[in-house]
Each structure stands twice: as structure tokens, then as C-alpha cells.
Design goal:
The structure holds three protein chains of three kinds. By secondary structure, chain B is mainly α. Chain B contains seven helices and no strands. Chain C is mainly alpha-helical. In chain C, a hairpin with a 2-residue loop joins strand 3 and strand 4. The chains are: A mainly alpha, B mainly alpha, C mainly alpha.
């Protein structure tokens, strides 16, 4: 298939994810947007693995294994992130990230 | 245009649309559910690309575990039922500009670079993947396991509820606004750091 | 030869002075014996030196005479000699001045006695050094004799005169130091060392005149003497420097030699500069030797003790100026202009002072003016004849010292200086009377005493020179001789004849004061005979002893002009007769004819108003009131104002610097740094919004930019 399809798809997911990170107020939604970005990265890895396989040799597997790792790490990250969000909620009774501005000047 | 192309295209469209809906949905739960769709579309993309195991791993882990986790998170943080009252797109220019600009740039780059590249798809079975994983990537695999353990422990420690912390369950949180008003507790109770911090920030 | 050690003579005196200063009071006679011993030693040594010098000179003359005898036998140089004498008889000063080494032939190898020893003392700029050196010739030997002998008499006399004075020791120390200084002046072989002696003599004179410093008039007189001679010293120093600039040496012998050859350093002799230098030197002599117009200090200097007057202001210090001219005589000969100036000033002084002497009441003042007048004689004489000048110096030293010491004896007896308090002292003080009489006769140039011969030689020299100046000196000299006889007669009558007008009990003086008078009377009477102006005596007489060049000696033979001698003697007698006529009857001061001559008296009593000119008009009116005030105003309003303004200006400048440069300028910069840091921080702080999404956005923008860069690159 055309190589551009999965790649553009990944780019789209990534940019949508950025949009979500930057514009969403709820911290959990921000985390979801980060998940979107990770998914986009995963697709990229697999697609590029497939592309590279044509040229080099074995990277098709390398790409997928990498994607596997990303998957695992992403899951761990969500877990820890949610734990932090829970803490934040516990301390200031709000998950609105605009309220987390103690570092403001 | 082979059949894989069409499938890929379809998956991309669904995934893209649902992703957009994720970031623009008013109802947080709707956003989570749209995310589920997006992740399923991503799994579909994996299938098209020949990564069978990865696709199912994606479904299992992400859709199955991570989304559930996120929904639990929404629940625990009193996610509002129904659309969020406040307009949550304050200052939209930066996100739009960055994301649109980045997407245009990337799309241009990709299409110009991979215009004439075709992928010869090969099916990679689970067995093959597993063998490769446990032979050549054994050490990082074990590290990954260790890493996951640490993350788990860390999350537990972080989310553990201390004595006296957190908002009072009796307080009537305004569920529609998604915001809880702070607790006017008496002087004897240990004030959470939030109170002091709040006073500072006010 | 002993002359090589002649430096011992002044050294002994300085040593004696030092000993008296430090240890004088411990001696039984309070230091007087130290002084007297030292002077006696100096006198003895001077005698030895003089014998050596004079005999050597006489031998040289004899050699020349023998050579000339030999030549004249072959018909040689008599013509030249005669021509020389003719020139002297008819010529004028310029001829005398022009004569030099080419006039008379002298056999080679025969020279007048000259000892010169020394070692270099200092060197300025590597070139103009001056030696500590001695120059012994006939003139120096003569001066030694005069100075040491008179000093010895004065020393002995002072033990009596100043007996009981609280500062007796200091007086003797000063006497020794003065004598040493005068001898240093005489012995010096270069002008710088002579100047040292000159100034030392001046200081000692100041200290001695103002010895009784309890009276303000005494210290005023000392100051007047010092400052007036100092004014003359300005000229002296200018002259010395001018001579140095011409000859590049201070050494007298070298200067004389170069002048006689007609050269100076770097070319031919510059006559104009030489004239200027010599006249400047003569200005110094005018000051020191009390010539007109700087004579005003000498009468006032009589405020000092009488022995001081006898030593310093009769015989020694005042003769320093005359000595200077005599020392550099060949150089002066090369400048007729200078000689003319000398003659004129001498003549004026001679007459002017003589007139002043006739209206004085103070006996010492009479003698002081007489000294000034006689110094005028010496100075004028030098313009025409070397021997005449210094011979008169020599004889005058003795009889004037005698007269002063005699007057001291009178003053000591009647306790007053004024002749109006004296009278009829002939019977009471015989020694004083007879010695005073001898001195007066010598002074009045009565045959055959010393003054006759010396004054006569002066007049003869003037007459021989002829011309305007010669005639002037001759005439004024003759008139002056008459005046001298007149005022001395007046003194004799007022003091010794008649009846005593005072209130005390005068008596003859102590032995210490008597015998020096007697000792001085002997040379006063007889010393004329060493310079008899006759052909038989000349080659072995004073002229030969003190000659400085054989050519000069041969060119100035002895001459005795009977007309002139007779005329001057006659004038002296006339003066005596007039004096006798007027004063025989002992008029009191109110009736004194000299004091009753109206304008004439008034002018003389006011000393020609010269003192008034100097003090009131010049010093007070011009210098103090005008120049000093102007200088003070200038200092106050200009110089001080400059300083003040610079101070104010500095303050203003520093204040402006503080206000503008520092406060507004630098502090602004420094504060500005802080303020700009603050301001930029104020702007930058907005980046710390606390908004996580802003941070994330910034990161994504950065990533975007990097991606673009990498893609493009």
C-alpha cells in the first residue's frame, strides 16, 4: 500500500493529540490526548518498520517490538499519571489544570 | 489501490474523526468513549500493517485496561455528568496554530518524501515476534517488567489516601460544574496543603 | 720656602676664634690671651713671609737693573726707558693703560715673586671649579703685615678698653674670626674664595659694630653697614660672574695672564664686557670701601666699640675694596673706562667726606669721615699708580688705627664721644696727646711723617697722568689735604687745648691701652721712609717689594715732584693756620664757626641729605610705599586670588562631578542596570504563568521549529 497512508494517519492523530493537550481543561482529558499522541507514535513505528524492512532486512520486527515497549510504557504512564491527578484532586478538589498555577509568578 | 489501501484509508478516516471528537467533545465520558473508538481504529491499522499480535495487544492493553483506568479516573475525580458547563477552550489560538501548523508541515513532508513508496506487507505472526522478543530483546524485556513493577508501586504510593487528606465527602460538590468548593474545617483538623496553597495563590 | 705655608696665617686665626668660642671662658683672661698669642704668631709668620717675598722681589729688580746696565753700555734700551718716562710725563691714562709687555724688555726668567698653591675645592658643571688656593706676592705680604700688626695692637688695647664687659670673650672670638677672614680675603688666589673672605669680613663687621646690641641704635648701625655693603656686593658678584663668562676661570693669575695677552676664552678680549665687569667689581669696592654714594654706613658704624673702628674701619675691612682693585691691577689697566670711573668716584669721595668732617662734634665721626676721604685718595690713586694707592693704604692703616685708638682712650676717659665734653686733656693724658698728635701730623701729610710721602705720591701720580681726570684728582686732592689739616687742627684744639668742659675726672689710660698707641706711633711716624721716591731708594723700597710685574716696575720709576710736594705742604700749613685761628680760643659748640655757616653748615650736618634720600625717599617712599605695597597687593589680589579661585574651582568641579558625573551619570547607569534587569524580569515573568498547557505549547512550538530546521537542513 501507499506508505503515506499510515504515516499521515499517525501525523493526524499526533496533531490532534497536541491540540487536545493544549486546549483541554480537565486533566484526565489531557491524559487522554497524550494517549492519542502515543498511539500515533506507535503507528509510526510499525509503519516505518514495514518500510524499512523493504530496504534493510529485519526492522519489521524491530519496529513492532518497539511499539510493544511503547505500549507497555504508555500504560504505566497512564497509571502513574492518574495517580497524580487523584492526588491533585484530593488536595485542591479540582482537576482543572488552570487551578494548578502555584508556580505562577 | 489495493484492498489494503482501502482498509487503511477507512481505518484512518474513522480514527481521525473519532480523534477529533475526543478533543472536542463536551462531555468527558463521551470523549473517553470516542477515545476507545480511536484506539480500536489504531488496532485496525496495525492489523492492516501486518502486526497481528500488536493489534490484539493494543486492544487488550489500551482499550481494555487503559481506557477502563481512565474512566475510573474520571469517576474518581467527579467528572461532570453531561456537558461541561464552562467553556473549556480559553485561548484557542495557540493550540490550533500549533497543531494545524504541525500537521500541515508533517503531511507535506511525508507526502513529498514517501510519495512513491509502497509497502510490501508481510504478515508477522505471534510466534515469530515472541521468539525475536525473547531472544534478541530479552534484557530490555526484563527491564520493562521491572519498570512496570516500579510504576505500579509508585502509583499505589502516590494515590494512597493519607489520614485527613482530601476533600470532605460530605461537601456538596457541584457536579455540574465539576468543581468542589473548599472545606471550611475547624482549626483542630490538620489542614491539607491545599488550603495553605490556596491561600497563597489567592 | 715659608710662603708655601702662608695659609697657616689665616688658619691660626680661625683656630683661635674657634678655641675662644668654645673654651674662652675657661682661660684666666677669658680668652684674650688666646687671641693675642694667635695674632702674635700670625705677625711673626707674616714677617718671615714678607722678608722672603720682598727680598726675592728686590733681587729680581737688581737682576733687571744689571741686565739693563749691560745693555745700556752697548747703547740699548735707555731710549725705550726714556720714551716710557716721557710718555708718563705727558701722556694720559690711555697710554698708561695700553702699556703692557711690549714696553720694557725684561730678561727672560726674571719674575716678581709669586707663590701659588692650592687644591680644587669644588667643580660646578665640570668646568668652573674653584680652588682652595693661596697667592702670595708682594701685595699679599704687605697686607699680611698691616693686618696682623694692627690686629695685634687692637687685641692688646681691647683687653683694657673692654675690661669688665659681659661679652668680653665673644669680642675676642670675633676679633680672631675677623682677622682670619681678612687674611683669607688677602691670601685667596681666586675670586670665589676672595668673595668668601669678603662676605665673612662683612659678617664679622656686622657682629662687631652691633656688639653692644642692647642699644637699638647700635644694631641699626650694624644693619645699615651690612645692607649698604651688601648692595655693593651685588655689583661685586655681577663682576665676578662677568669675568668668569669672559675667562671661564676664577683664578686671578689666569685672568691676569689672559688679559695681558688680550684674549679671553673663545677669542679676542671683549672690551665692552671687560669694562662692564670691572665697573661692576668697583661697585663692590664702593660698598666695602665706603666710596660715594655708598659711604653712609661708615660714620654710623662708629656705634661699635672703638677698637673695632680702629681695626675694621680704618685699616682692614674698608681697604678690601682697594685691595681688590690692586689685586686685579693688570686687568684694570686694560680698561681705561673703568680707571676713569674709579678716579672720578675717588675724587668726589675725597672732597665730599673731607667737608663733612669739619662739622662733626663726635670725635670718632671726624675720624670716620677722614677715613672715607682717605679711602677716596687711595681709590683715585690706583687709577694712576699702583704703588701710590697701596702705599697710601699701608701708611693710612697705621696712623688711622693710632688715631682711633687714641680717640678710644679719650672716650674711655671722659665717658663721652663728643668733643664738647672734652678739652684741656693735654696735661692729663700725655701719652694719648703725643701719639694723637703724631697721628694727626701723619694724616695731614706733614713732612717727614708717613702721610707726607704717601699722599705726595698720589698727587704726583695724578699730576703725571694729566688729562681731565688727572687734573681733577690733583686739584681735589690738594684741597682735600688742606681740609684734612684743618679739621685735625680743630680736633686737636677742641680736645687737648684749653680747659676741660666736662664733668668727670679724666685720667690717662691703662697700660694695655697706652702701649699700643706708642707702638703704632712708631710706624706712623717712620714708615714713610720705606718708599722714598728717589732713585737710590726705589729699587729696594716699597715699590720693589710689592711690585706685581717687572715691566710695570721698570715703567714707573720713582719721581718726586718738588712743586707738588711743596704746594701740598703749603696747603697743609694753611689749613693748620686757619684752624688755629678759629679754634684757638676754644669756642663752645654754639659759637663754633663751622657750625654757624648757615646753609653750608646745614647741608653738611645733614650729610648732603643723602641719608634722607636713601632712607625716606628711596627705601620708604619708593620701595616700601610703592613697590612693596604693589607687590603685596599683587600677591593678595592676583596670586592669592588665583590660588583661591583654583581652590573654589576645584570644589565646584568636584561638586559638579559628584552631581552630574556620579549621581546622574554613573549612578544612573548602575541603577539602570538594576532597573533594566527588573523590567526585563517583569516582562519575562509572564512566561511563568503556572499554566502547564502553556509550557507544553511552548515545547511543541520548539519541537516544531526544530523539526522544520532539520527538514530544511
Amino acid at each position: 500500500m501507499e506508505a503515506t497512508f499510515p504515516l499521515v494517519f499517525a501525523a493526524l492523530l499526533f496533531c490532534v493529540g497536541i491540540f487536545g493537550v493544549l486546549s483541554r481543561r480537565n486533566a484526565v482529558l489531557v491524559l487522554m490526548s497524550v494517549e492519542l499522541m502515543l498511539a500515533a507514535v506507535t503507528i509510526n513505528l510499525v509503519a516505518f518498520g514495514a518500510i524499512a524492512a523493504q530496504r534493510v532486512g529485519d526492522p519489521v520486527l524491530t519496529g513492532q517490538i518497539f511499539a510493544l515497549f511503547v505500549l507497555a510504557v504508555g500504560a504505566a504512564e497512564v497509571g502513574v499519571g492518574l495517580a497524580i491527578i487523584l492526588l491533585m484532586y484530593r488536595n485542591r478538589a479540582s482537576v482543572n489544570i488552570d487551578d494548578a498555577d502555584l508556580m505562577k509568578f | 489501490m489495493t484492498i489494503q489501501d482501502i482498509w487503511m484509508l477507512g481505518v484512518a478516516v474513522i480514527g481521525g474523526a473519532s480523534a477529533l471528537l475526543v478533543v472536542t467533545a463536551r462531555n468527558v465520558v463521551h470523549a473517553a468513549l470516542y477515545l476507545v473508538v480511536t484506539l480500536l481504529a489504531v488496532a485496525g491499522a496495525f492489523l492492516v500493517l501486518g502486526a497481528e499480535f500488536l493489534a490484539w495487544a493494543q486492544v487488550l492493553v489500551y482499550v481494555g485496561a487503559v481506557m477502563v483506568l481512565l474512566l475510573f479516573g474520571l469517576m474518581l475525580t467527579r467528572a461532570p455528568i453531561g456537558p461541561m458547563a464552562q467553556h473549556n477552550d480559553i485561548g484557542r489560538v495557540l493550540p490550533v496554530a500549533v497543531s494545524a501548523g504541525l500537521f500541515l508541515f508533517l503531511a507535506t513532508m511525508i507526502t513529498s518524501s514517501f510519495r512513491n513508496v509502497r509497502i510490501d506487507l508481510t504478515y508477522v505472526g505471534a510466534a515469530e515476534l515472541g521468539e525475536h522478543l525473547y531472544v534478541y530483546w530479552a534484557f530490555p524485556f526484563m527491564v520493562l517488567g521491572f519498570f512496570l513493577t516500579v510504576a505500579l508501586i509508585g502509583a499505589i504510593i502516590l494515590a494512597r489516601k493519607e489520614e485527613g487528606e482530601g476533600p470532605d465527602p460530605e461537601v456538596d460538590a457541584d457536579l455540574r460544574t465539576g468543581r468542589a468548593t473548599p472545606v471550611p474545617s475547624d482549626a483542630t483538623s490538620h489542614p491539607g496543603p491545599g488550603r495553605a496553597a490556596r491561600e497563597v495563590s489567592a | 720656602m715659608i710662603s708655601e705655608f702662608a695659609w697657616v696665617i689665616p688658619a691660626v686665626m680661625f683656630a683661635s676664634g674657634a678655641i675662644i668660642v668654645f673654651f674662652g671662658k675657661q682661660f684666666p683672661k677669658q680668652g684674650a690671651e688666646v687671641g693675642i698669642t694667635a695674632v702674635a704668631l700670625a705677625l711673626v709668620m707674616s714677617v718671615f713671609v714678607a722678608v722672603e717675598v720682598f727680598s726675592a722681589n728686590v733681587d729680581a729688580v737688581a737682576q733687571v737693573e744689571a741686565a739693563h746696565e749691560g745693555e745700556s753700555a752697548a747703547g740699548g734700551d735707555h731710549a725705550a726707558l726714556d720714551g716710557q718716562r716721557l710718555a708718563i710725563a705727558t701722556g694720559d691714562l690711555s697710554v698708561l693703560a695700553a702699556e703692557g709687555a711690549d714696553a720694557v724688555e725684561v730678561p727672560a726668567g726674571v719674575e716678581p715673586f709669586l707663590v701659588e698653591r692650592g687644591f680644587q675645592l669644588t667643580a660646578f658643571a665640570g668646568e668652573a671649579g674653584f680652588d682652595a688656593g693661596i697667592r702670595i706676592d708682594g701685595l699679599a705680604a704687605m697686607m699680611f703685615l698691616l693686618v696682623t700688626f694692627v690686629s695685634l695692637m687692637v687685641h692688646i688695647y681691647s683687653t683694657g678698653y673692654l675690661d669688665g664687659d659681659p661679652r668680653f670673650t665673644w669680642f675676642f672670638a670675633l676679633l680672631s674670626l675677623f682677622t682670619g677672614s681678612m687674611l683669607l680675603l688677602v691670601i685667596a688666589n681666586n675670586l670665589m674664595l676672595m668673595l668668601v673672605g669678603w662676605e665673612l669680613v662683612g659678617i664679622c663687621s656686622y657682629l662687631l659694630i652691633g656688639f653692644w646690641l642692647e642699644e637699638k641704635t647700635n644694631s641699626d648701625a650694624a644693619m645699615k653697614a651690612f645692607l649698604t655693603t651688601k648692595l655693593g656686593d651685588v655689583g661685586l658678584i655681577v663682576g665676578i660672574v662677568a669675568l668668569w663668562s669672559m675667562f671661564e676661570t676664577f683664578n686671578i693669575g689666569e685672568i691676569i695672564a689672559m688679559t695681558q695677552q688680550g684674549v679671553q676664552a673663545g677669542g679676542a678680549l671683549d672690551q665692552g664686557l671687560l669694562d662692564f665687569a670691572l665697573i661692576a667689581l668697583f661697585v663692590g669696592a664702593i660698598g666695602k670701601s665706603a666710596q660715594f654714594p655708598l659711604h653712609t654706613w661708615l660714620p654710623d658704624a662708629m656705634a661699635g666699640p672703638t677698637p673695632v673702628s680702629a681695626l675694621i674701619h680704618a685699616a682692614t675691612m674698608v681697604t678690601a675694596g682697594v685691595f681688590l682693585i690692586a689685586r686685579l691691577y693688570p686687568v684694570f689697566q686694560a680698561s681705561p673706562t673703568a680707571l676713569t670711573v674709579i678716579a672720578v668716584i675717588g675724587a668726589i669721595t675725597l672732597l665730599m667726606a673731607g667737608l663733612l668732617a669739619i662739622v662733626q662734634d663726635d670725635v670718632k665721626r671726624v675720624l670716620a669721615y677722614s677715613t672715607v676721604s682717605q679711602l677716596g685718595y687711595m681709590v683715585a690713586a690706583l687709577a694712576f699708580s699702583y704703588t701710590a694707592g697701596i702705599f697710601h693704604l699701608f701708611t693710612h692703616g697705621f696712623f688711622k688705627a693710632l688715631l682711633f685708638l687714641g680717640s678710644g682712650s679719650l672716650i674711655h676717659a671722659v665717658h663721652s664721644n663728643n668733643m664738647s665734653d672734652m678739652g684741656g686733656l693735654r696735661r692729663v693724658m700725655p701719652y694719648t696727646f703725643w701719639t694723637f698728635l703724631i697721628g694727626s701730623l701723619a694724616l695731614a701729610a706733614v713732612f717727614p711723617l708717613a702721610g707726607f710721602w704717601s699722599k705726595d705720591e698720589v698727587l704726583a701720580g695724578a699730576a703725571g697722568a694729566g688729562g681731565v681726570t688727572g687734573t681733577l684728582v690733583l686739584v681735589l686732592g690738594a684741597v682735600g689735604g688742606m681740609l684734612t689739616a684743618f679739621y685735625m687742627t680743630r680736633v686737636l684744639y677742641l680736645v687737648f687745648a684749653g680747659t676741660y668742659r666736662g664733668h668727670g675726672h679724666p685720667h690717662e689710660s691703662l697700660a694695655a691701652m697706652k702701649w699700643p698707641l706708642v707702638a703704632l706711633a712708631v710706624p706712623a711716624a717712620l714708615i714713610g721712609f720705606i718708599n722714598l721716591p728717589f732713585e737710590f731708594a726705589h729699587p729696594s723700597g716699597f715699590s720693589a717689594w710689592t711690585m706685581f710685574s717687572l715691566e710695570y716696575f721698570e715703567g714707573h720709576p720713582a719721581e718726586f715732584s718738588i712743586p707738588i710736594a711743596g704746594a701740598s705742604l703749603a696747603l697743609a700749613v694753611v689749613g693748620f693756620l686757619i684752624g688755629r685761628a678759629l679754634y684757638r680760643r676754644q669756642p663752645s659748640m654754639a659759637e663754633d664757626p663751622m657750625l654757624n655757616m648757615g646753609v653750608f653748615t646745614r647741608v653738611l650736618e645733614n650729610k648732603y641729605y643723602l641719608d634722607r634720600l636713601y632712607t625716606d625717599l628711596i627705601t620708604r617712599g619708593l620701595i616700601r610705599d610703592k613697590l612693596a605695597t604693589a607687590a603685596y597687593w599683587f600677591n593678595d589680589h592676583v596670586l592669592d586670588r588665583v590660588v583661591f579661585l583654583s581652590g573654589v574651582g576645584t570644589i565646584r568641579l568636584s561638586r559638579a562631578t559628584y552631581d552630574y558625573a556620579d549621581q546622574k551619570g554613573i549612578d544612573r547607569v548602575v541603577n539602570g542596570v538594576g532597573l533594566s534587569a527588573n523590567w526585563s524580569g517583569g516582562l519575562l515573568k509572564f512566561a511563568q504563568s503556572g499554566n502547564v498547557q502553556l509550557y507544553a505549547g511552548a515545547m511543541f512550538v520548539g519541537v516544531f521549529v526544530l523539526a522544520v530546521l532539520f527538514a530544511v537542513a
